[in-house]
Each structure stands twice: as C-alpha cells, then as structure tokens.
Amino acid sequence: MENTIAIPKGFYFLGKHIGIKKQKKDFGVVYSPEECSASAMFTKNQFCGEPIPIGREAIKDKCLQAFVVTSGIANVATGAVGRANAQKIVDKLANELEIPSQNILPSSTGIIGPQLPIDTILTGMDGVGDNLSRLNAKEFAEAIMTTDTKVKMHSIKVGGATLLGIAKGSGMIEPNMATMLVYLMSDAVVEKEEIHELLSNSVEKSFNSMSIDTDTSTSDTVALMTSNLYEVKKEAFAKALDELCLSLCKEIVKDAEGAKHTIEVTVTNCISKKEAKIIGKSIVNSPLVKTAVYGADPNWGRIIMAIGKVEEAHLDKDKLIIKLGEHIIFQNQQEITENFEKSKEYLQKNDEIKITVMMNTGVEEHTVYGCDLTEEYVEINGHYTT
Amino acid sequence: MENTIAIPKGFYFLGKHIGIKKQKKDFGVVYSPEECSASAMFTKNQFCGEPIPIGREAIKDKCLQAFVVTSGIANVATGAVGRANAQKIVDKLANELEIPSQNILPSSTGIIGPQLPIDTILTGMDGVGDNLSRLNAKEFAEAIMTTDTKVKMHSIKVGGATLLGIAKGSGMIEPNMATMLVYLMSDAVVEKEEIHELLSNSVEKSFNSMSIDTDTSTSDTVALMTSNLYEVKKEAFAKALDELCLSLCKEIVKDAEGAKHTIEVTVTNCISKKEAKIIGKSIVNSPLVKTAVYGADPNWGRIIMAIGKVEEAHLDKDKLIIKLGEHIIFQNQQEITENFEKSKEYLQKNDEIKITVMMNTGVEEHTVYGCDLTEEYVEINGHYTT
C-alpha cells in the first residue's frame, strides 16, 4: 500500500530512533510551514496522558502547524513532571521549527507509568528541523507504532487535493471516542469554522464505531490539519474523509492484537441510529460472539443473547432477522436450519465476517467494527510486561 | 463440602437422567408438600428463556411449592412451541405432585435454539412424585449443571433453622441481575411481605456484583422458598442469606470457564455505593486487567485506565490509592516502586486476588467479584458447538 501513497502539498515528515525504545523508531514529526486549519478529538478517559491537555489547549484556535509523537512510553499517570516533560518537547520543537508552541499538538503512546527519558529526547531533537522531508511519511508512520504489526497509511484524491491518513493502534481500543493515534493531513481548503464538524462526523462513523477489547486508551487522539491550497467541494471532501477514516479503521481492526477475523455488524431497520449503534456494540463486544466467530461456529444464540441484553432496545422477536454473510440464520423466532451449514462454511472460509441484524422496527441503521477473541490476544496481553 | 450439607426441613429432591443430555443427569425437582413463602429474580435479557415468563407469573402470589429444572437445552428462542413445552413440564409435575401448576417455578439451561425433546421428558417424568427424597439434594445439584466442573452447594444454620443454596453457572454471566440458576431453601419462618426485600438485598451484594464475561444469560434465575417451620430473627436470617449468597457467588466465580484466578475488587471511600460498583465492574470486566492478573503482572496502568474510562466517576488523581493484596502499588500519582516485586509475588502465589481502590472522595464502598481471562476461556467458547 505504501507504494501508492500520495502526499498532500505543504507537509513534511520525520521518523527516527531517539532512545525511548531500544532500537526501533520512537519519535515522529509532521510539519507544515504555513498555518493550517485544524481540529482534534481526544480520549474521554479521565486518566488521560499528560500531552492531551496541552493538545486541547493548542487546538482551541483551530490552527496548527505540527504533530509531534513519542512512542514506547505513554506519559500517563506521570503527574506534574510528565506534564512538564510534554511541554519541554513542544517548546523544543517550536524552537527548532521557529513556530509558536501553541501551533504544535503532542502525543505519546506506549507503557503507562514511567517518566519519559526527557534529556535523551531533547538532545536527540537537536536539528530535527533540518531533517524533515516530503519523502518521510512512512518513517513517521513507523515511528508511532507500538504493538502494531503493520504500518497504517492511506491516501485519497479529492478533486485537485490529496487527503492522507496515518494511524497506529491495536489494543486497548474502544468506544468512547478515540481509539488510537490518527493523523490526517490534506492540502484542500477547509475553513476553520467547518473543520471540527467535518472531523467529528467522520470519526463517529469510523473510529467511534470500532471496538477491539472494550478498553479505552488513555492517549487516543484523532487530528486533522489542512494546508488550504486547493479548493474542493465540501461534500466531496466530507465523503473522502469518511472513506479515509473508514479505511484506517478497518486497517486497525485487521491488525488487532491476536485477531484472526474482523467482524462488521450492521444493525438495520432500527428505531434510531443510536439504538442501532448500542445493539451493534453489544454484539461486537460480546466475548461469546467473538469466540464463536473465532471458532467458525454459526452460534446465533449468542447473537440474540447480545441483542437481548440491551435493556433499552425496542425488540420485536417476531420481526428480528439475523444474517451471517448473505445467509439468513434466524427468522420468525427460529433457526433457518437449511442455512446452518452454509453459514458455517462462510465463517470458515472468510476472514472478514459480516453480521447483519434486521430489527424491522424502524428505518435507521449503523455499522460497527470489531474482531474476534483468540488465545493469542490473551497470550499477548497476559505476558506483556510493565 | 457435600459431606457437611444440612437440609432444611420440609424439602424433597430429585435429580436424574431423562434424555436431554446423552448420559449425565438433566432433570431436577425440589418439592415442599406445604406451601412456602417465595420470591424470585430473573434475567433482564429481553431474549429470555420461555420458562421465565411462566416463573414470573407463578411468583406473583409469593407462594411456591416446587422448582423444576431441565438442563442441556435452554428453551430460548423457541417461540410458542417452546413456551407450550415449558408449560407442559409444569402441568405434568403438578399432576404428579398433586399441587397447583402455579406453585411451580420452571427453569431450563443449556444450548440456545433447539426445542426440548418434550415427549421424552414427559414420559421420563412418570412417577417422579414417588422418587423424591430428603437425601437427593446433591443429585438435584448435579442435574442442573452444564459446563460447570463442580457441584455448588452450601448450607448455613441460623438459629434453629437451616438455609440451603444450590447453584449452577460458569459462563455467560454478568451484571444485570441474575447470573445463573440459584435455588435457596429454608425452614425458617419468613413472611410473604418480607421475602422479596430479603432476597433482593442479598442478590445485590452477591450475584449482581459478579461478572465473568460481561455477557448476560437468557435464563438466569435466583429463587428462594421457605417452609416456615422455625422462628428466626429477621436480621439473623438476612445475615445468613447474605453469607450463603456470597459463598455461592464465590464458588461460581471460582468455577468460571477457564479461570485460573478469582478477582475481588473493592472500591472504598467513594462518593456513592453506585459509583463504587460501576468503577469496580469497569476494573473486573476489563480484558486488559483480566489478562494482567492471569499473567501475574502488577500492571496498575491498566487499573487506572479502567477507572478513568468511567466517565461519570468523581476522580481525584492526587487522592487515588491502589492496592494489590496488602501492597500499595499506586499513590500520589505514581507507582510505589518498592512494592512492585512484592505485588508481583502476591499475584504469582495466590489464586484469589484482591484489588483495593481507595477513591478518597467519600465514605461508601462496594465489592465486585470476577475472574481472569485465559487462553482456556477462548478455547472452551471457541470450540463449544451449537
């Protein structure tokens, strides 16, 4: 995929090893010489990382010029020292790039608890301004990885403009908002007044509809900067942003810790989008549904259990239809027995599983994204050492 | 434990193989010749089993004489045929015992979807009235088991009376109410006006504070019958009922599918009991906390993540203290490093893990019960066939 990545005009990148991790890249910068329109959304976790409040301040004027990311240590639960360290990184970068500190959005990802090796980082940052390049987007994408096994980058053309997204994330990912780190850049013209609504609409349909293990990270951030060089129709840009966010969302789910199948649950003909999302999440988060998909077992009983446990759902059992792929497995309050073997085969032969739940109580629908639960997930997280 | 079980006066039991399972016991009855004071609480899952609405009706007059349970097939999502089958079992038992149908509370547990082999069951029920015995409580306990590996029975003396509890359950167990099947019997005198409050108070502190995999079963039932032979102080009975429910709750958690450790999370000095319970559940349900306990990793970062993701929690990070066993691992916004190795050793050497979270924002507390997440849980549920 990297071969086909297009880079929007006006952005420069860096990804390098600075000394937080033993050997792998652990420091990344995205930079725009001109001030960009910008928006960002952050984790709702109350124990958020120390860079987050700095980012919240920075984004208030809807103007940014740089993202800076350290990986390996999350800078979470590090108190006043951690906050000061995050600010030192921002100030050092501001000095190197000769831009205001408040035009920089910082993030950190990795282990919770330890302090950053701040002296090592600051020394390693000497001269970063001279090492930025339009060719280094992939290096930036590598520098923000932790347990990810794959680089997650994607670009889309929209009119004369380009939209680029770079993401990381594979565990501790759930509902609330966020999800992981996602950096979106474009050279399209987007007004400051419109940028937040555009971003939040796309995030709701993608990252906020994704769930790997129901845990909500302390550092999740999705941020968008536009260098405002090419006029693009608002609707076209919105559509491209939706598509880009969904692609990155699917890449993250595919790379989820230990996952063998992705699961896409679409709840249709529902009384409201909100209810469709709650029901979808209940299904995609159910450990029993997740293990059934892993075992390629068309266990629709676990799906109806997960629907039924949503107390606020408007459920008419007589109208409910459940499909695995194209095969109706439950209708008229009973199993469609002739589709059982076909459903089993569908689960066995595909690694992107689609579950459709037709509530038939209304006209709204919503899709959520998740993955199965495997022994490997337990192994990765049972033996990841602090 | 079975050797020391005391049986309250006035109750007779039966547990036998009737032909739902291949060989194991799958049919059980508890019977009282006299009308008992009774209360019951059921799953809140909207896709509840077909016996549940019959039980809800039966309990309305707070009077019961029998429990009847089939295991192997849950009689869930079986529509009108399933409801009629549940009623046929009740009516047949009423006929055999010569008691009113509405004095019988039925349950079924097992696989969701298939219809009960009703003819086999009704034929097998011929003469059950003649095979009830005060000696067969253990046979009843065995007859209600599915994936359970251990019989779960416990009795307590309260004044001159006896309180007996028999339970089953090891997966698909979570919050809402219920949990599994729990039958409580006593020969104490309990007024009909008081029995529901007594039961619901005890259930809130035990079964409703327990969580194995966040999934809520479709058939959960907790029911209490008292044969009203011995006068006992209300407070003493309430205390004994609390103790009995907690013992059964801990036995269920210990027998959870694939679990290697039980986890008891006590949230203290909290602003309300409700908040303490929500925070406790967020911790005990977190897959990352569960796998950390499994791996004996004192990963307090995952605990603060689970606290922080409760958006409504009143959190003062400066006041928060986290203990693993007796060892403070987090205080004053940082790891208590000298306790790290002791905490690790505590996790390695114990299979009943206690996590204490001191919020220090108020005076209320609540304890919740759960277990770790292991490869074996995934294996059991990934390869359990419908």
TrEMBL record, chains A, B:
Pfam families: ArgJ. Pathway: Amino-acid biosynthesis; L-arginine biosynthesis; L-ornithine and N-acetyl-L-glutamate from L-glutamate and N(2)-acetyl-L-ornithine (cyclic): step 1/1; Amino-acid biosynthesis; L-arginine biosynthesis; N(2)-acetyl-L-ornithine from L-glutamate: step 1/4. It is an enzyme of class 2 (transferase). One of its GO terms (molecular function) is L-glutamate N-acetyltransferase activity. One of its GO terms (cellular component) is cytoplasm. The record marks T109, G110 as: Involved in the stabilization of negative charge on the oxyanion by the formation of the oxyanion hole. It is found in: Cytoplasm. Keywords: Acyltransferase, Amino-acid biosynthesis, Arginine biosynthesis, Autocatalytic cleavage, Cytoplasm, Multifunctional enzyme, Transferase. Its main location: cytoplasm. This is Arginine biosynthesis bifunctional protein ArgJ. It comes from Pilibacter termitis. The lineage of its organism: Bacteria, Bacillati, Bacillota, Bacilli, Lactobacillales.
